[in-house]
Write a structure and sequence with these properties.
Elements lengths: L9 H13 L3 E5 L2 E6 L2 E7 L15 H4 L2
Antiparallel strand pairs: 1-2, 2-3
Amino acid sequence: MNKECLELSPWQLQTGLEWFLSNGFLEKKMKGLYAITFRGEELLKLVDEVPMTGFNKPGTCEKSRCQA
């Protein structure tokens, strides 16, 4: 499974983001761009203007990156 294309339900995404935010792992990079970091390593970028960017939802991941 490619870690760049995760399939999450809206509930999992909301719960996960709240956990990262409350534990200080979600940092705002610039307007509309956030990053999830763990031990200084950037794990995932989130763009709030484009819902679910980086997740395996229709049209958000390139097929070459999401194929097993």
